[in-house]
Amino acid sequence: MGVRTWITSWPVYRQLTGADPLGRGRAASSPRSRRVQPRTATAERVAHSVCPYCAVGCAQNVYVRDDQVVQIEGNPDSPISRGRLCPKGSASKQLVTGGHRLRTVLYRPPYATEWRELDLEEAMDMVADRVLEARRKGWQETDAHGNRLRRTMGIASLGGATLDNEENYLIKKLFTALGAIQIENQARI
Prior knowledge:
Blueprint: H1 3-9, H2 11-17, H3 31-35, E1 45-50, E2 59-65, E3 68-74, H4 87-90, H5 92-97, E4 104-107, E5 116-119, H6 120-137, E6 139-142, E7 148-159, H7 165-178, E8 180-185
Parallel strand pairs: 7-8
Antiparallel strand pairs: 1-2, 2-3, 4-5, 6-7
């Protein structure tokens, strides 16, 4: 590359000799940056969601292409966050698409000495079957005086601080609908 070619590719030279004397536009951009386009430009559709991390309820736009999430950004139409997200909310895409997300679970059958991997679907079916069986075994329709109880003493829930507000809210609703009365959270203990 000659000296003249190097000088003409220099941003200051383009700024001083071109139509962008303040260097805020084309003079400051490289050929590579001119070719780059935002991930949101290739999205087929936009789904609206809410950030899962805290109780503020910042709205998000989830950009989807080929049924895969390509970008998550703040929704500028939201009166709560006006399109802004905190660092955790900005990293929501990693929560959905990250390679660290587990797709299988470890299970050790009763009296077994070794763990084995189970598909997540199979494990969820096992949990649901066991919850429904415990609910059925512990169900109390009425007390000794004939008062309607409609509750189960067979299951309980203890939420933890690692769950976000939305997860704790849904767990509370689930266990209440199942008839459980022992529903607690670590934050209250």
